[in-house]
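Open question from group meeting: does this chain pack into something compact, or does most of it stay loose? Before anyone orders reagents, we agreed to write out a predicted structure and look at it together. Recording both the input and the output here so the notebook holds the full record.
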Amino acid sequence: MKAAIFDFDGTLVDSMYVWKKVDVDFLTKRGIPVTDEYTDKMRSMFFETAAAYTKKVYDLPDSTDEIMQEWLDMAHYEYANNVRLKPGAEEYIRRLKGEGILLGMATSNNPYLLMPCLENNGLDGIFDVICYTSEVGMNKSNPEIYLYTARKLGVEPEDCTVYEDIIEGLRSSSSAGMKTVAVYDPSNEAYLNEIKDAADIFINSYDEFI
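Structure tokens returned:
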């Protein structure tokens, strides 16, 4: 391969706990019990839709924008201070860099959360390009974010290997002609067999490569 394209959440870092923690802390602060029904609904919603739903269902005086900003600030604290790389990730990435492999990131996250997390984990500046789904206007069920990242790196899709933890990303990047590595994350346990089938390689940890 000439380029390695990494997803961020659940692939490079153990961050999938953050938004559930935000839900719990946000509601607990207001004396509202957290239900499984609420957290399940939140998982499938876009950010603004989730804020509007939360405001409506709990009759909150906060505006939708205020709710979203509070959520972002709570998540920012976690990403900047507590979110850590998956075991072996830093050594593996530095090894690729040392071998002259171009490093890209294709993520649904945003710079406000991602950049301080990279800095706190000693990886700021190591990626040649960082691309966001917001730049292409499509989620990871569409391969455009991976193709966009490849174009920014200046390489052909067939020369890229994509590292992902979600089935949608593995399938779409594979459909674009890229090689795929599935990285285990507990949040996707229910889809583990499908994830293994969709990927060229499955790893439980980057230590397996090292």
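Observations to bring back to the group:
The two ends are 17 Å apart (CA to CA).
The first strand starts at residue 3 and ends at 6.
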